[in-house]
Amino acid sequence: MSQNSTSALSRFFRRYAKDPERAEALLMDPLSQHLRNLAPGDTLCRENDPADRLWIVEFGTFHIYRDGHFVTQAAQTEVLGEQGLLGVPAETVAERSKCRNSTLIAATKCKIWIVHEQTIDQLSPEARYHWADVLARVLSDKLLATSNLKVDADVEHSASLSLISRFVDKTGQTFVQGLLQKGDEFSDYRFEQVSAVVWFSDIAGFSKAARGKAPKDIGRLLDPVMHLKVSTIQEHGGEIEVFTGDGLTAFWICRSDDQLTEACSKAVSAARTVLESFPGAKTDPLLGLRIGLHAGNALAGNFGANGRIAYSLTGEMINDGSRYESARVDVDGHELGPIRISPSVHERISSEQRGVFKKKPRRFVAKHDALFAAYVLKAANRR
């Protein structure tokens, strides 16, 4: 055996032993009996192989896989396979307790020391004491490294969720987290039937007001209105689904009839708050608001494709909801005003909230000559 090889094992003792000189004197001979060279791509062990030995890496790098996925890597003076070797006896827990839980493959040229379980069993009491001390320090070192990795992973996960929250609202975040945590297993989740209140809004006159203006001036028109709408909807428990130019779609997902009633009240309150605080008239007299609210059943889920996630709602109720925003006038040619709510919303709000709307709904014609009824604000409650 070469001096370089034994000096490599000496480095291992200096790294982990409490008393390196005594540990080396007692353990060098029994642990330095078996060396093995591996070429890149050689497999050291596979998952579920019997765990009857451990390895000390003299040089080289191993890649560690679990369930076919890369987990981490190990390099010089690191110990491999000790957890399997320390497994609880099979008759106590389960047969696989002393089986490998990972596959180890050489990523580079490697040389390893092989330490058999039988070799450890034959050590003198003092040698076993020093070996146990070394192994305890190895495990402590790995536990600390794992803890640090977990902290880093938690920080990264938190940063990822913070970033996701800038693009997806809370229900969509739950869906994305499921994909991140479960991967392909979460692909079985497709859609669910929910009750919901939907909000469609637009800035009336925005295209005309923006015509001929510089991009930064258009931004000055749009930003305060969007900020007002988003913050107000979120303060009232709603979730932003999508921005479309100067338009915005939001929803309140409900799991019970009581929640739907509460959501209708919150949505109407949010619409009135936006209208009362609308900055458009101050920045450009051409600007106005159109907000349409509707309630009913919809299909919720990931409606993306080709790996693109798009958590959204769909269904006839959503299509109908968009009509309440897009309508301009009623069947008699009268403007509908800034807030239009469907009968399904109107019937669930309080008498106090209904008091700001006209008692009789206004009828309007939408796509394919479909006739809709909308409750609109009394003149005194409009801008």
Sequence-ordered SSE layout with sheet pairings:
Layout: H1 3-16, H2 20-31, E1 35-38, E2 43-45, E3 53-59, E4 62-66, E5 69-74, E6 79-80, H3 82-85, E7 103-106, E8 110-116, H4 117-121, H5 125-165, H6 170-182, E9 191-204, H7 206-210, H8 215-235, E10 239-244, E11 247-254, H9 257-277, H10 280-283, E12 288-302, E13 311-314, H11 316-326, E14 339-341, H12 343-346, H13 351-354, E15 362-365, E16 371-376
Parallel strand pairs: 12-14
Antiparallel strand pairs: 1-8, 2-7, 3-6, 3-8, 4-5, 4-7, 9-11, 9-12, 10-11, 12-13, 14-16, 15-16
Order of helices and strands: HHEEEEEEHEEHHHEHHEEHHEEHEHHEE
Distance N terminus to C terminus?
92 Å
Rg is 34 Å
Shape: elongated
Name the beta content range.
25-35%
Range of helix content: 40-55%
User: Roughly what is the average pLDDT, rounded to an integer?
Assistant: 85
The residue ranges in which pLDDT falls below 50 over 5 or more consecutive positions are 88-96
Secondary structure: number of strands: 16
Biggest sheet layout: 8 strands, mixed
Count of DSSP H/I helices: 13
Assembly status:
single chain
Overview of this structure, please?
This protein is α+β, with helices and mostly antiparallel strands and 383 residues long. It is built from 13 helices and 16 strands. The protein has helices spanning 3-16, 20-31, 82-85, 117-121, 125-165, 170-182, 206-210, 215-235, 257-277, 280-283, 316-326, 343-346, 351-354, and strands spanning 35-38, 43-45, 53-59, 62-66, 69-74, 79-80, 103-106, 110-116, 191-204, 239-244, 247-254, 288-302, 311-314, 339-341, 362-365, 371-376. Strands 9, 10, 11, 12, 13, 14, 15 and 16 form an 8-stranded mixed sheet that branches. Helix 1 (3-16) crosses helix 2, helix 2 (20-31) crosses helix 5 (125-165) and helix 8 (215-235) packs antiparallel against helix 9. Residues 88-96 have low confidence and may be disordered.
